[in-house]
User: Fold these one by one.
Assistant:
Number 1:
Amino acid sequence: MNKKLHFFQSIHFKIALVFALLLLITFQIVGAYFVQQLKKDNLKSFKQQVELSSYIDSSLIGNLSRGNTTKANTNIKDILEDVDNSNVTKIQVVDTKGTIRGDSDVNSQDLIGQKTTDNDIKQVLYNERSYAKSAYDRTDNKRYYVSITPLFSTTGNTNTLVGAVYLRASLEPVYSSINKVTLIFATAALIATGLGLILAIFISSAITRPIDEMKKQTTRIARGDYSGQVKIYGTDELGQLAQAVNNLSVRVEEAQESSEAERRRLDSVLSHMSDGVLATDRRGNVIIMNETASQALNIDPNIADGQSVLDILGIRDKYTLRDLLENQDEIIIDLSDEEHDEILNAYFSLIQRESGFISGLVCVLHDITEQQRIDRERREFVSNVSHELRTPLTSVRSYIEALNDGAWKDPEVAPSFLKVTQDETQRMIRMINDLLSLSRMDSGTSKLELELVNLNELYNYILDRFDMMLKSDDAHEEGKKSYSIRRDFTKRELWVEIDTDKFMQVVDNIINNAIKYSPDGGVITCRLLETHNHVILSISDQGLGIPKKDVVHIFDRFFRVDKARSRAQGGTGLGLAISKEVIEMHGGRIWVDSIEGKGSTFYISLPYEEYEGELWDEA
Ligand code: ADP
């Protein structure tokens, strides 16, 4: 934009040129007028100078009237010789008949007595009127002046033509003096113009220097450099302009700083926002995109720049820009793929000027994946709970109805009907207790009562109970499963901080499951080992195993691989969900490895810190 200014395009040059041209034109006009006037005056005085005096005229008239006599001609010759004018080159006297009666030129004396051949003279004699001309003689390149004057003798009131005088004079002295003056004038004009030009250059540089400085300063301002100041040379208009440029520089700097600060503030607000923000121009092309939006949409802001917001959000199939502009509702954008869920809520609003002109669109993207998941889980949970409670209640109701209808009298069926209602009611109570403890853990009201426990001992204690159960009388009841428990523990004593009751509940539940889902006589292997910062308990069975697709859901609430079977065995589908919550509250992890048809291994890992022996020895 800031093209280099050619010297001939500069104001500096233009002012000097105008100044010089003005001077030149002025001199031209004055000179032309002056020389013209001089020429006119000089010629006039020259003519007056070369005209024959009236005295000579009257003596010529006298001699001409006397007729063509030698005497008269000699007189005329004398008169002509007396004429003393260096400019006059030739005087010839002719009578009315055109006969040459005298000639001032010595070489032309033989013409005397001959008829004139000059047509101009003949014309004058004929017209009886004087004639004059200035002419240029090509033979010797000189200007000359010719005047032919008729001569009259006056008797009374009548004028009689007696002849004419032909006079020729050189105009060269007049012209050479005019030329000299013209030359002087031209030289003076040139010198004056030259001096004027130098003066004009100085004056114009005095004007253009401040302008030039202001130009440089404004260019610097445009570049963003506000450090310079224009020098103020005076208080005239240019001085005031320079002052204005300096003020402008300060104002622009202030404005620039405040808009820069504003931009930084906006940038920091945008980049620290947990919501994604997109701003577009009025054509819907993205001009701003914050980090959150870029991550949520998985698009580099530089690539998104200038692209349509419809493409960036992938909603071109369903919406047009007009839809977004006219109807700024929220839009749910589902970006979920097979690997992960991602649902965004996009709120649109217009960027509008006071005049109502729409200059763009702002889109705020809010990640609602988690919220949607929680909503879905809550809905599923409510429906699961209702369903799980309805089934036992329905069966209890139908048994009670049957008893009510008279079955109570039947000693065969009544006790078994009552047993079923009792079992179902107990299962419901168990389920409600499970739900309550889950809800306590969810709300954070259930606290762990931690104590330092020797895990080897605790694990042995739990397993001993299961061994005892096998030996008790109940175990030999018909239909009860037999199993054997194998222990594989590390020799090292492992002390961990746990809530004993809750932890025992977890291990009980897993061993119960292992027994439940194992064939009769199955071996259950219980291991205890340590890594450098974890203790790991594992419980392996030789049971049904869990289908691969269900492994990820096994710890979900109410999830059961085979609902009917679990229910028949009094399961609630909440045991593993509770176990997971409890272990996670301890900062540990629970997971399962399973091969369908072969068996499953449940693992519990707890954080473990080795306690220094001496501490305990002292105690
Ligand atoms: P339930 O009360 O039904 O046992 P759990 O939460 O304890 O509920 O277990 C959830 C489901 O996980 C069970 O219904 C069962 O299908 C499956 N499961 C748990 N443990 C085992 C196991 N050791 N072998 C095979 N499947 C198991």
Number 2:
Amino acid sequence: MSLREVRKLKEKEEGVVILAHNYQRPEIQRIADFIGDSLELSMKATEIEAETIVFCGVDFMAETAKILNPDKEVLIPDRNARCPMASMLSVDLLTEYKKKYSEAEVVLYVNTTAECKALADVICTSANAHSIIEKLESDVILFGPDANLAHYVRKRTGKKVIPIPEWGHCPVHVSIGVDDLKRARNKYPNARVMAHPECLPEVQEKADLVASTGQMIKKACSHNEWVVLTEREMCHRLKTIYPNKKFYPGKDAVCVNMKKITVEKVKKSLESHVHEVNVPKDISKRARRAIEKMFELTL
Ligand code: 13P
Ligand code: SF4
């Protein structure tokens, strides 16, 4: 199936919008109506008029779109496109920590399940985590599931940020080591290094810029050559936006779950309206409150 055929099919299917994350395959980026980071996609999801959203990303992103649009049809082209980090925090562990640290405010990374979101005070993404935590009254924060992002916000805010679980991580980002960073610096001496805050603390500390994927796009204009320490498709995205700049992946880090979305599967989604994302009403209502609190604190 060619891209042209999918585009035609999409035109035929009125009332459908395709949202895609920055890590999606280049051909998916080409058929998407909107591409962005987790924060941009969740905000975009609140503005959509179309009846159907085809979400090219992983489970928690499509769930967030559904929570924000309970009356719309939200489809994910592959049900198995699941972020492994999102399942690293269980409701049981969260409940246990909430009891133990009853004075703490609970900030959860958007990369988590809807059930956990329903127990949070506020949701954040890597783009707004530190500014949201700065705005909260409490100096004690329960933060999950990413312990590396917890490290980043602890350093930036000076607050007591307790990671739940202590070992929560993204397998793609922790595969990027300091050795990869050093090798890239030697190979490209004129390049600056940008890293995602899901990277290990020692990698964050040696990078010139630590940023969400959306912030990487905004800040790349400040220099002509960059080593990019995140999922490999980010280089494609940056090169599309800045064709005259140079971007080098520090490592060939691939999120296999993001890559489960293919053009063929998007076509099937459009034709057969599969696979529908559903979130139980009571969970959705409570999770929505925590997501809306994020929007409130982001503005
Ligand atoms: P961004 O919000 O920076 O796009 O990150 C999402 C993600 O899953 C990174 O691995
Ligand atoms: Fe999850 Fe990591 Fe993939 Fe992002 S890159 S979706 S955090 S596994």
